Amino acid sequence: MFRHRLQVRFSDCDLLGHVNHAVYLTYFEQARSAWWHALGGGTASMPGAGAIIVHASCNYRAPAFPADDLEIRIAVAALGTSSVTLDYAVVNATTGQHLADGRTVNVAYDYTANRTMPLPVVTRAALSAAPEPD
Amino acid sequence: MFRHRLQVRFSDCDLLGHVNHAVYLTYFEQARSAWWHALGGGTASMPGAGAIIVHASCNYRAPAFPADDLEIRIAVAALGTSSVTLDYAVVNATTGQHLADGRTVNVAYDYTANRTMPLPVVTRAALSAAPEPD
Amino acid sequence: MFRHRLQVRFSDCDLLGHVNHAVYLTYFEQARSAWWHALGGGTASMPGAGAIIVHASCNYRAPAFPADDLEIRIAVAALGTSSVTLDYAVVNATTGQHLADGRTVNVAYDYTANRTMPLPVVTRAALSAAPEPD
Amino acid sequence: MFRHRLQVRFSDCDLLGHVNHAVYLTYFEQARSAWWHALGGGTASMPGAGAIIVHASCNYRAPAFPADDLEIRIAVAALGTSSVTLDYAVVNATTGQHLADGRTVNVAYDYTANRTMPLPVVTRAALSAAPEPD
Questions:
Q1: Which domain holds residue B96?
Q2: Is the Cβ pair B25, A26 closer than 8 Å?
Q3: With A58 labelled, which of B27, C12, C42, D96 sits at a CA distance of 20 to 30 A?
Q4: Which of A8, A9, A12 to mutate to test the interface with D (most CBs of D within 10 A)?
Q5: Cβ–Cβ contact B122 with C under 8 A
Q6: Residue B26 C-alpha, separation from nearest chain D C-alpha, in angstroms
Q7: Is A134 inside any structural domain?
Q8: Exposure b/e, C38-77, CB count within 10 A at least 16 = b
Q9: Distance (Å, whole) CA C65 – CA C97
């Protein structure tokens, strides 16, 4: 399971005193981007397949506050012909408290032909080798 | 079905050239807030029950671009003892194209006792009278 | 003076209960974009000169709150060889209260040659005809 | 000079391919918050004086990109009766390139009396001991 650390920004929080719920998708995005680079994405050997997000969801269990250090965990939940389903967990890195979990479905997209496309072989191989959820 | 209009901000969009996927939850939130006020929420007769979001999800069908005028539609999908499930649709107000749909589960919360609470009677009555999804 | 209306989003506000100070630059940006389109920018007759922002500032006088309707006013303060200086005011559209004022300096930029460029003649003409600050 | 590290988020960037200019004020805010805690702010010995921002500005010199590691530097530029003026620099932590500099004016505020107030003695002492700009 890939782990990405980030710090809550003051401006991530809203009038209710904690991180605004929409920002969790941004945390997922940030972890996903780091994970993709760690897999070798965006390099000559695994040129960026265009990707679009067709689904995102999050379940909220406990709040996060300004300057909290969070760990975003990410794992491959399912691999389809042209899609990969990713599962996320958000954990307070100091206390270990589980704050949220979520999911995105990402689809390989051919921006030239303007349609979805099968996952490139090299991408599929990298995703298959990635850790599964705990 | 309650309808709320808003305009896409330049800064809602990311490197991919369209509205960032996390921002749709912000659009839902904006519509939900307008809807809650339209129902009479936050007034003396229906004092704000504290509410928390325990789930949010979105399915993305087509992109939105800077300065697009969007209509966010919102309807009550289910009413539990302490929760209300809301369904959303995002439509391009100019073309009528359906761009996204989503859901949130909102739970009445007693911030003093620090736990969920049954929906107040007056809130339940207002929500019961609200339109259902088309 | 060009005037642009927008509504404060709940998520524009931070823990302090009002619009976060950084968001005013986003309001300026949104007004500037609408103004540029109103001037004819981005059309065949005035193809988008690339532009970069080299300076932005804001003075804060009074807070704005969720769902406030704001009017952003924009005017040309100065016109240089390759730059235009814009002045902004943020006014509560309901009460008329003056909330903030600011400035940006925007420079025409040739993304191909990777350097600043003189304002195109047609752009200069349009900016010269734009209203000055009150 | 206090130094704070942060990573550019994908969603900090806009259609132009680099960090949106408004986000630099958020970077300043994040550094200011860390600096304030490092000074001992918000503790029993230096209880949070309420503070408001009355001015913010930024000069942009070079762009920042997704996943860039940035160092935000902050120093006390001037100390008034009730205000502190802070200067900021944004530097690419990998290349050392200077990307932006800025300024905020922060004023001590008595939220009970709803007016500005002199800087508390202990706060003034801490600020006086803080490093000046290079």
A1: 2-125
A2: no
A3: C12
A4: A9
A5: no
A6: 14
A7: no
A8: ebebeeeebeebebbbbbbbbebeebbebebebbbbbbbe
A9: 13
Looking at the complex, report in whole angstroms how far the Cα of residue C25 sits from the nearest Cα belonging to chain A.
Answer: 14
ipTM of predicted complex: 0.93
Question: Which chains pack against D, by 3+ Cβ pairs within 8 A?
Answer: A, B, C
* Number of structural domains chain D divides into: 1
CA-closest candidate to residue A81, choices A125, A44, A118, A26:
A118
For the purposes of burial, counting CB atoms within 10 Å of the CB of C29, is it exposed (0-12), middle (13-18) or buried (19 or more)? Answer: buried
Phi and psi of B57, rounded to 5°?
A: -150, 160
Task: Tell me the whole-structure pTM to 2 decimals.
Answer: 0.94
Query: Could you tell me which chain C residue has the CA closest to the CA of D105?
Result: C59
More confident residue, C105 or A132: C105
Compute and round to an integer the Cα radius of gyration of chain C.
Answer: 16
Residue D44 maps to a domain: yes
List the CATH number of the domain containing C56.
3.10.129.10
Q: Is residue B89 part of a domain?
A: yes
C25 touches chain D (CB under 8 A): yes
Q: Quick one: what percent of chain A has pLDDT higher than 90?
A: 69
Per-residue pLDDT tens digits for A104-122: 999 998 888 889 999 988 8
- Considering only CB atoms, which chain D residues are within 8 Å of C21? 25, 29, 53, 56
